[in-house]
Amino acid sequence: MKLFQSALISFLIIFGVSANKLPKYKDAKQPIESRIKDLVKRMTLEEKILQLNQYTFGENNNPNNIGPEVKKLPAGIGSLIYFSANPVLRNEIQKKAMEESRLGIPILFGFDVIHGFRTVYPISLAQACTFNPELVTKACGVAAKESVLSGVDWTFSPMIDVALDPRWGRVSEGYGEDPYMNAVFGVASVKGYQGKNLSDPYSIAACLKHYVGYGMSEGGRDYRSSNISAQSLWETYLPPYEACVKAGAATLMSGFNDLNGVPATANHYTLTEILKNRWKHDGFVVADWNAVAQLVYQGVAKDSAEAGLKAFMAGIEMDMRDNIYLEYFPKLVAEKKIPMAKIDDAVARVLRVKFRLGLFDEPYTKVLDENERYLKPQDVALAEKLAEESMVLLKNTKKALPFSGNIKKLAVIGPMAKDKENMLGSWSFNGKANDVESIFEGLEKEFSGKIQLNYAYGCGFEGTDEKGFEEAIAAANGSDAILVCLGELKTWSGENASRSTIALPAIQEKLVEKLKQTGKPIILVLSNGRPLELVRLEPLADAIVEIWQPGIAGGTPLAGILSGRVNPSGKLAITFPLTTGQIPMYYNMRQSARPYQAMGDYQDIPVEPMYWFGHGLSYTTFSYDEAKLSAKKITKNEKLTIEVTVTNSGAVKGKETVLWYISDPVCSISRPMKELKYFKKKEINAGDKTTFKFEIDPMRDLSYTDGTGKRFVETGDFYIHVGNQKVKFELE
Ligand code: BGC
Predict the structure, then answer these.
(1) Which residues of the chain have pLDDT under 50?
(2) How far apart are CA 96 and CA 79, in angstroms?
(3) Hey, which of 84, 155, 204, 288 would you mutate to test ligand 1's pocket, going by the most ligand atoms within 8 Å of its Cβ?
(4) From 175's CA, which of 39, 92, 270, 331 has a CA 20 to 30 Å away?
């Protein structure tokens, strides 16, 4: 029966082709791999090379220049970074590709849609603090739809670079310090962008970046080298990529960093041996902006031609913007330095993504009015929900929060209070400050008729101007409590935004010192793209709420947290060191050789950071019953379940995230002190209890890798850490 069916299908396929006389690659009924083969066979070398290049379009957004710019574009170009949000223009460019290039190959339009397109939602670091990957999938789905409707098929996101140094501006773009978190949230965002199927009308291709090790850029300075041992590469930096490749991520982008002497953009080991040969990734890798040309600066190529050769032979299929492939490949192929088979494979990879996106069959995008494309009420509500769950209550003493009836007048002070632009965070090109609800607007909505708001600017983000202090102190004196809204400019995060200190500029700290003298309770609101040094500010504040850079909808959730309408549920996805000098400080370090009496730690400051990964307070309390194991011993082929019942022992409903860590005290290769293996967030009503379960799969959760990526599981004792319990079991 099966045989008959497949014979019939092949017959129909063959019949279909001859009936409509389409070349095979244009026939949507043909399997993608046959279409690719057919097309590659028809292409000239020049056409092939064009597919491996990416131009930018629209840097100059002057409408007068647009016409000639479209004319200038080669019709057969592989991809464009599309610095426009105009679907009509995209269709015009695409039409040129479809109709004026010999074979009618569609262009792939890429863009940095990092945390929302126009409906800008919180930065990725904040998203991780929700511990709610389902929300992130939904938000990326919204970003994908807005992108498609703006002419974009491919986003340069997610960034899944594990980042241990908060001086690095790009910590804001990833999901924090933990490999598992970067894997889970990376997969969540790939699912959101790519949907169930890349060919769905509102799916876009994801791009994992920056492969690999960019997060370890030395000293937190951007574009530097990353010296990562083989062991750390495999246990810390590669796992998020492996997980996202398995989840079907269509593309990757190589990093700017030198990795142990071989730049990530010329690294055959990571790009080919690992990615293509071991993980079987069949999409393509694009070099980061000018990264091929930079191989000359990085000291591994004598000129552009050699840079192009090295990058391509290492496994970079697409050259972003620097036109090196275009210029030098004809000669390099003629000289047989680049084999034709390698060109064909690279072209096939690029075409595969285009076919999977359905671009050959539906090259144009739907044209809708702006108000039908962006900021749909349900999408803004989602951005608000994400912001709400990402906010972390870092400190709450003297019942400062939520506000009780005693607060009739609230001083609202500081550079962030009415700011809109910086709430958007970095990489929000299509975000508009006008779309943003400021902190002050959120407060007005929440407290109108209940609390009088006394606003004062206080001071700027930086500088030495104290002129606003007097007015701020007066506002504070006339109020029952002070909300001080501090933070970072959005340009202090993202690319090329490293900072030598993670403290806020002195002027902001000084403002709080002055306000403290009024004796009024101080609630500190922080909006920033990295962990901050709070060693001087923390003692001055009765409560601290971290709102990150929440995007367009942060005002209402913050106001809800202050009023008690919202019970905060965010937890830190990255540790806040006590001081900048304490960096690196992350929870899954390896054990010291003298782990007692603070031996070896900095002698001039306490050992502990300000707030560990996982820290985050609630307005209710959760009590954990004793965790129960399904068995005390298991073999490698068995699974073990551990469960813990959590009671909401406070007076209000709240969401608790249970974090499950594993530690392995004795192993042939020493293990981190503990490693996050699973988490789950659930809402629990006051007085109710819920059971959380973690099923341990030894191969997945108890194994470790060596510096070649080989996995091992060793018998012996293990511990599960949950809440403040540490439960032992044995693998035999
Ligand atoms: C950044 C990438 C980004 C690319 C394209 C580079 O400078 O490092 O993250 O995707 O530009 O805009």
Answers:
(1) 1-19, 60-62
(2) 13
(3) 288
(4) 270
